[in-house]
Task: inverse folding
């Protein structure tokens, strides 16, 4: 069985080809040009292994958390593939879940979300204990350092992604649809909401002065 895994949620573009439960080949690119590089990366990966998209039995995609644009790129590609090749199966996974496969125990998985916030979930390998959520930097201080794993852009997570996808396949955890995992609004929207709130507070103060 051939599985094509696509992960565009971080600064590393992962295109991974898995044969049964083994990582067969991969194409990784670091940078912020995922939309420009994705299709060619997949084509190169398949060509090196004498395969075409018709040979793919399962598509796996990371649905978040991570870059808003990156999430949309990977999901858009896999939605297109599974629409054209409708017999193929679908696996969805999240980036925090991947972190749990770097250890062999229940672990708090963390990713810097900016603005003193962190994406957080607790997993024990395949088992989800706490669903992904946003917590504050202050809340992370209560987590023992030995019980947490922080996402690191310099690490190649390909082997751990493959382990997670292989476990999902072995346990028949296929998805019927792709739902992006957005735990926060885009920064521009948050800034707009914040500015609106400040404006309302300013208007309220002026109204109080007039009355």
Result:
């Amino acid at each position: 069985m051939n599985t094509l895994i696509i992960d565009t949620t971080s600064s590393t573009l992962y295109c991974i080809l898995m044969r049964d439960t083994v990582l067969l080949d991969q194409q990784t690119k670091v940078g912020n040009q995922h939309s420009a590089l994705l299709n060619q990366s997949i084509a190169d990966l398949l060509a090196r292994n004498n395969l075409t998209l018709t040979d793919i039995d399962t598509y796996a995609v990371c649905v978040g958390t991570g870059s808003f644009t990156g999430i949309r790129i990977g999901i858009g590609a896999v939605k297109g593939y599974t629409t054209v090749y409708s017999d193929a199966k679908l696996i969805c996974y999240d980036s925090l879940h991947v972190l749990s496969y770097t250890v062999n125990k229940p672990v708090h998985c963390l990713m810097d979300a900016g603005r003193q916030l962190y994406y957080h979930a607790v997993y024990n390998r395949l088992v989800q204990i706490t669903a992904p959520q946003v917590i504050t930097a202050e809340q992370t201080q209560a987590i023992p350092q030995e019980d947490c794993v922080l996402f690191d852009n310099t690490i190649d997570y390909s082997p751990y992604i493959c382990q997670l996808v292989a476990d999902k396949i072995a346990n028949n955890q296929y998805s019927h649809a792709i739902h992006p995992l957005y735990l926060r609004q885009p920064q521009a929207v948050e800034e707009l909401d914040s500015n609106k709130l400040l404006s309302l507070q300013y208007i309220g103060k002026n109204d109080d002065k007039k009355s």
